[in-house]
Amino acid sequence: PLRYIVVLMPVLALGAAALYEQVRSARAWLAPIVIWTFGIALHGIARPWSLFHIANGENIVGEYLSTLYHSDFSRLFPSYIRPNFAAIVAPLAVLLALLTFAPRGGEKVALSEAKGRMRGVPILAAIALALFFHFGKLPGDRIEFEDAHVTHNGGTLYPYEYQVARFLYRGGWMMKGGDSLSFLAKRGSYVLFYASTEPVVIDISGRAFHLDAAPTYAVTLVYVPVTGRVTLRCLNGSINLDRMDRRE
Question: Residue 215's CB: how many other CB atoms inside 10 A?
């Protein structure tokens, strides 16, 4: 996706030059900027597939934490491949941080001001990290069935990972009779997005739902009776599960 930004590099370079004039008075900023720039460029060249997961837009850190805790940590990382709420919050947070910590005034005043403001950064970072893990372990309002936090017992990814023109397809998880998956969810009603060429029966935590055939994607209401670990089973037929959005 970053190939679309190549034509804007001259404009971005002008912006970087203007920012450099502002931050060079605070020498402590330059080393992290340089290291990060070279580091992410080298990482992208060496392991381009690990920057994000082609199947669902998750990054390697989000996938690792989601797999480790079996909870949807990836929803807290901004994804512009599959846009999420974090993709809106993150740029606003960065802009707010720049406005808060950017030095103002003359060089000497700016340097002392920047040092004073930087003292609060470790505390804010610790609070942000604690909140990140707190909310990351809680169930989200959307379950994308192909994501890493979902435990899959049978079934296959749809479409397969290296499908040509994959962006033309809606990602999901194919299941047939006997397959199951589990995930964290909140109690309440959900809108289930699915496709199936035949009538299907699924079971969610002991409740059976009879779904009509839907050759193209359809929606239906389902109910999750508990908050916590939920198991969804395909009792008969075959179904392509796209996602599940909570209504209340």
Answer: 9
CB of 185 within 8 A of CB of 139? yes
C-alpha closest to that of 133 among 125, 144, 141:
125
Beta bridge partners of 233: 180, 203
What is the spatial distance between Cα 77 and Cα 89, in angstroms, rounded to a whole number? Answer: 10
pTM of the entire predicted model: 0.74
User: 3-state DSSP call for residue 24?
Assistant: coil
> Which band of pLDDT confidence, cut at 50, 70 and 90, is reported for residue 191?
very high
The two structure tokens encoding residue 153: 């017992």
pLDDT in tens, 224-236: 999 999 999 999 9
Burial call 25-39: b when 16+ CB within 10 Å, e when fewer? ebeebeeeeeeeeee
User: Tokens in use for 184?
Assistant: 């964290």
How far is residue 135's CA from residue 9's CA, in Å, rounded to a whole number? Answer: 36
How many whole angstroms separate alpha carbon 165 and alpha carbon 130? 39
Return the C-alpha torsion angle 187, 192, 198, 202, nearest 10. Answer: -10
Task: State the Cα–Cα distance between residues 176 and 190, nearest whole angstrom.
Answer: 21
Give Dmax (Cα) for the chain.
Answer: 73
